[in-house]
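Quick one, C-alpha cells below. Sequence please?
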C-alpha cells in the first residue's frame, strides 16, 4: 500500500487536475483559436464608430464599457470611424456600422480577416436597421444584445450557447424580443466570457496585428456572395459561419446572426438562398 502522505498527494493532484480541466472546458467558446497578435497584455482594440444614430452610438458606448469592465486581456476604445455604410474593414481595427442593409434575413454580421492561420488583422460589425426599425426588434435590450455579440466576435469569441437559452451572456442566442423584450438578460458579457478571453490571449506573439496599417485584399459586404462558403450552422438555424480565401493568402471568416423568422422558415437551410 502507498504511504498515507503519498496517497494524499496523489489524490490532491488528481482533484486539482479535474478542477483545472473543468474550468478550461466550461469556458470553451473560442472562435477557432482566432486572435489578434500582440506582444503585450492587456491590449486595446480600436472600435471605429461609423454609426449614424445617437441610439446606436449609445449601444456601442455601453458595449465598450461592458467589455472593459472585466479582468481581461482585451480592452476597447471607441475612435472615429474610417469606413462607410458598406463597412469596409480597416487594418488594426474593428469598424462598427449600421444601415438599412435590406430584407435579407440577418440582424447582425461580424467579419474578421485572418493571416498566418489564426491572427486577426481587421474586423467589422454590422447592424441591420431594416429589421431593427421594426416593432419586433426595435427595443434597447435586443439592440444591446446584438451589438455586444457582434463586436465580441471580432475579439475571437464564439457563442456560449446557440439553443436560445439565456446564459446571461451576450454571447448566447437568447432573444430579447416578444415577451422577453423588457428583459436585460444576455445584454452584457459574463464571467465565462472574460475567462475565455484570458485563455485565448494567454500567450504572446512576436508580431502585432493590432498595430497593422496594411489592409487585406478582402471585401465583405451585405451581399452574401462576398461571404464565401458555408462552413457551419447552429441546429436551430439562428447562426451561420462562412469562410472565403483571398488572393493575398488571407482568410475572411463571417458570423451571421439570422432573424427568428429566417431560422424558423428552414432551420437547416443556407438562409442566403431560402427566401
Amino acid at each position: 500500500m502507498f504511504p498515507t502522505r503519498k496517497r494524499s498527494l496523489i489524490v490532491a493532484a488528481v482533484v486539482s487536475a479535474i478542477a483545472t480541466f473543468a474550468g478550461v472546458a466550461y469556458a470553451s467558446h473560442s472562435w477557432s483559436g482566432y486572435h489578434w497578435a500582440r506582444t503585450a497584455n492587456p491590449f486595446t482594440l480600436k472600435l471605429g464608430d461609423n454609426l449614424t444614430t445617437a441610439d446606436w452610438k449609445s449601444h456601442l458606448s455601453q458595449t465598450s464599457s461592458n467589455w472593459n469592465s472585466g479582468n481581461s486581456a482585451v480592452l476597447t476604445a471607441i475612435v472615429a470611424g474610417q469606413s462607410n455604410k458598406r463597412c469596409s474593414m480597416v487594418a488594426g481595427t474593428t469598424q462598427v456600422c449600421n444601415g438599412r442593409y435590406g430584407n435579407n434575413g440577418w440582424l447582425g454580421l461580424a467579419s474578421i480577416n485572418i493571416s498566418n492561420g489564426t491572427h486577426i488583422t481587421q474586423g467589422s460589425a454590422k447592424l441591420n436597421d431594416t429589421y431593427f426599425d421594426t416593432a419586433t426588434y426595435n427595443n434597447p435590450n435586443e439592440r444591446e444584445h446584438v451589438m455586444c455579440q457582434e463586436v465580441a466576435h471580432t475579439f475571437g469569441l464564439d457563442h456560449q450557447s446557440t439553443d436560445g437559452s439565456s446564459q446571461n451572456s451576450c454571447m448566447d442566442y437568447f432573444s430579447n424580443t416578444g415577451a422577453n423584450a423588457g428583459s436585460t438578460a444576455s445584454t452584457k458579457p459574463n464571467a465565462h466570457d472574460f475567462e475565455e478571453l484570458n485563455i485565448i490571449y494567454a500567450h504572446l506573439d512576436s508580431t502585432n496585428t493590432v498595430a497593422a496599417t496594411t489592409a487585406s485584399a478582402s471585401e465583405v459586404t451585405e451581399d452574401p456572395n462576398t461571404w464565401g462558403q458555408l462552413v457551419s450552422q447552429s441546429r436551430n438555424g439562428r447562426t451561420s459561419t462562412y469562410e472565403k480565401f483571398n488572393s493575398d493568402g488571407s482568410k475572411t471568416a463571417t458570423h451571421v446572426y439570422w432573424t427568428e423568422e429566417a431560422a424558423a422558415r428552414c432551420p437547416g437551410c443556407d438562409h442566403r438562398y431560402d427566401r
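The chain has a mean pLDDT of 89. Strands lie at 35-36, 43-49, 74-80, 93-99, 106-115, 119-128, 229-233, 239-245, 251-258.
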